[in-house]
Specification:
- The protein has 17 helices and eleven strands.
- By secondary structure, the protein is an alpha/beta fold.
- The chain has a seven-stranded parallel beta sheet, with helices on both faces. A four-stranded mixed beta sheet has the order 9-8-10-11, with helices on one face.
- The relative contact order is 0.11.
């Protein structure tokens, strides 16, 4: 039977690439649900191409326009996050692709897990902000999280090859972003338009800026802690500019298993949708003879202080990672508007962490309160 897919954030980078995988394998997958925040035109195009049964526009002010555009189609149009949370629980959904950007992805992800769904998770902020709550919800409802991030998909694939042998270290690879070889003074003056020019990956604006600050890698450290039940001290970040080795796991005897491939997000997306099988996704294949040298180096925490802050937040635990995520969302949005400088992002993040009302064992209510409180403080810093 075809696997019925719900894509939360279908108009973004991960969402559009997920649809491209489905486009190549109509015999294996069908689109049950797609959603977007406010990109009505593209959402309606996707609904028509893939005959989506349900379409959710999360910005309720866009409902009328969306419904009008799809009035002659078979798609049912809904509005708001509450509708999205309800629809992902449906028995007509087999796999939920969590591709929404930011903290907004938390509620529908939890709803899908509570319904015992398979969640192909690309939304970093869900595990960063509420890792203990998300993983406990998954276990309690016998749900499954399959990682879509290329690094975490790589670790997952390496663990499958490990056949149950305990790992001693996770090596998360990082491209280093567009500023890897820049001097700190030049990075300090970098505009958003420069930070958005990632050398290897095609990603959305927010994730691309996070890659430039290396906050993206910091968030992946936090994700890895929850996904693979390891201590932060067992996670190592290594800069690998070619982005060929997507991550590695190390064992007690010193052996290391790595997962390799060309930098194309359709590969981990396809693996999550088809697991445990593999499907072709039309990506470029590695040509080892032409690769030449592969390079690895330690990250520079002075040039990229956001990575240090992420390690500090997960070591502190509680609601500290949630606070870091909330501050970073506000700061990155301001940087994208050229309202602050590059290193102001790290300064705002650090100030918000220092002023946090710390909760050691946060409830979901605490997480939402922390997100609102820290967003307010971060906006105050900017203003």
């Amino acid at each position: 039977m075809k696997r019925r897919i719900a894509i939360l954030g279908s108009t973004g980078s991960i969402g559009t690439q997920t649809l491209d995988v489905i486009r190549q394998h109509r015999d294996l997958f069908e689109v049950e649900l797609i959603s977007a925040l406010r990109s009505t035109e593209l959402l309606c195009e996707q609904a028509r191409e893939f005959d989506a049964a349900n379409v959710v526009i999360c910005d309720e002010s866009k409902y009328g326009q969306t419904a009008e555009n799809l009035k002659d189609s078979d798609s049912k149009v809904w509005a708001g996050i509450d509708s999205l949370c309800s629809l992902v629980r449906s028995e007509s959904v087999d796999i939920v692709v969590g591709a929404m950007v930011g903290f907004s992805g938390l509620r529908p992800t939890l709803a899908a897990l509570e319904a015992g769904k398979i969640v192909a998770l690309a939304n970093k902020e869900t595990l960063v902000a509420a890792g203990s709550i998300v993983t406990e919800t998954m276990r309690r409802h016998n749900a499954v999280i399959l990682p879509v991030d290329s690094e975490h998909s790589a670790i997952f694939q390496c663990l499958l090859a490990a056949q149950g042998n305990e790992i001693t270290k996770i090596h998360l690879t990082a491209s280093g972003g567009p500023f890897r070889e820049w001097d700190r003074k030049d990075i300090a003056a970098a505009r958003a338009s420069q930070a958005l020019k990632h050398p290897n990956w095609d990603m959305g604006a927010k994730v691309t800026i996070d890659s430039a600050t290396m906050m993206n890698k910091g968030f992946e450290v936090i994700e890895a802690k929850w996904l693979f039940d390891v201590k932060p001290s067992d996670i190592n970040v290594v800069v690998h500019p070619e982005s060929v080795v997507h991550s590695m796991v190390e064992f007690s005897d010193g052996a290391v298993i790595a997962q390799m491939g060309c930098p194309d997000m359709r590969e981990p997306i396809g693996f999550a949708l088809s697991f445990p099988s593999r499907v072709s996704v039309g990506n470029r294949k590695l040509d080892f003879a032409s690769l030449g040298a592969l390079h690895f180096s330690a990250p520079d925490f002075k040039k990229f202080p956001c990575l240090r802050l992420a390690f500090e937040a997960i070591e502190r635990g509680g609601n500290a990672p949630c606070a870091l995520n909330a501050a970073n969302e506000v700061a990155v949005a301001a940087y994208l508007k050229d309202a602050i400088s590059f290193y102001d992002i790290a300064k705002i993040n650090e100030k918000c962490l220092a002023g946090l009302n710390f909760v050691k064992n946060p409830t979901l209510e605490d997480i939402f309160e922390t997100n609102l409180e820290i967003a307010r403080i971060a906006n105050g810093c900017i203003n």
